[in-house]
Amino acid sequence: MRVLVLGGYGLVGLEIVRALREGGLDVAGFGRSVALGKRLTPGIAWLGGDLAQFTRPQDWAVSLEGIDAVVNASGALQDSFKDRLAVSQDASISALIAACEAAGIKKFVQISAPGAEPGASTAFLRTKASADAALRASKLDWTILKPGLVISGNSYGGTTLLRMLAAFPLVQPLVLGGARIQTVAGSDVGAAVLAVLTGGAPARHDYDLVEDQAHELRAVVEAIRLWVGREPAGCEAALPRWMGVCVAMLADAAGWLGWRSPLRSTALKVLAADVLGDPRPWTEVTGRRLKSLEETLRALPSSLQERVFGRAQLVFPVLVVTLAGFFLASGAIGWAQRDQAAAVLEGTIAAGNAGRLVGAGAALDLLIGIGLLVRRWTRRAAWGGILLSAAYLAAGSWLTPQLWGDPLGPFVKIFPVMALALAVAALCEER
Prior knowledge:
By secondary structure, the chain is an alpha/beta fold. The protein has 2 domains: 2-302, NAD(P)-binding Rossmann-like Domain (Rossmann fold); 316-427. The chain contains 16 helices and 13 strands. The protein has helices at 11-22, 34-40, 85-103, 123-136, 158-166, 186-197, 217-227, 241-255, 265-272, 280-286, 293-299, 304-336, 338-343, 354-373, 378-399, 414-427, and strands spanning 2-6, 26-31, 45-48, 69-72, 107-111, 141-147, 149-151, 171-174, 180-181, 183-185, 205-209, 215-216, 235-238. The strands form 4 sheets. The protein has a 7-stranded parallel beta sheet, sandwiched between helices. Helix 12 runs antiparallel to helix 14 (354-373) and helix 15 (378-399) runs antiparallel to helix 16.
């Protein structure tokens, strides 16, 4: 059986691809970036494209050639610069379902979510519900799986948020600490998809994939703290929901610059409504009990990498904003005071072009500052900042070597700026 997995390099998609390959199935992946798919999961065929461009059944014809079953593990938290949920989670998937019917492909597994209902409070859940409804109305042998909060060795979305929260030292700040959550091991989601495709569970059913017991958010975060080897928090700082809303609004705005923060307003709304499901139907038809949170964490390695990752994700936004602010302020001040800056070059061989040089430097600073804030340009802008800082240092040392002795240290301060840019470039990974 050859299976096409949409979102094959995502948090859930990676687990599904791994489980299907270990189960002896032939797997092809579909993702936005073929190059990224090949890096993260080599050894399988990869197809690529933006789901927003696949809104008609005929758009899927080439991707479905030679395919026997489809698993849709694609998804996005909310609308942003990269994502339009009404298209990518609804129109595109509905077109794929129709294309499968036309191509004679029978098996279709949809990864949905608990709470995916037409009247849900978020576009994420409403668009999932719409695609679920289109699948139920089809002639396919469909199965809809609704995982709870997925805990995996990989990290993205909600799992990244948990690691970030658990990285706070001494005090544990929480919004909606009493929100109730049922988790599921990423490996159990992969095993469930394999079972569905190989006849281990009846088709044309919805199944919640959740552990038996629900936990409060504070208990889940505390479990993550202990799992990575940190000391328990000295106390909990229960923050009012309005503070969480303010942070989420900033994260939403960053989404239009390409940042997919796990702290966006959709995550807050989903938590407020609880993340709960009924594990009994799946257990009854398969005889398989899904792992508890404790069992999931016990089965995953916890090491130095986990502790460093959580702290790095917590401070990374601060690093980016600080570095971008420095370059934007440097450029704006340099442009506003370019005459005074040009006066520093009087008496040097660059005196005749001092104004133009200062203006060009200010413009480059502004461009780098803007580039750091746009997700797709951040790493290149960070390296640009390093090169520009090195050029400032070299040119300044040649033209105005006396500034090395300046008590304010204008040249010495370039080195920590370059180090900060290097840290941003090194940490700028999304998956």
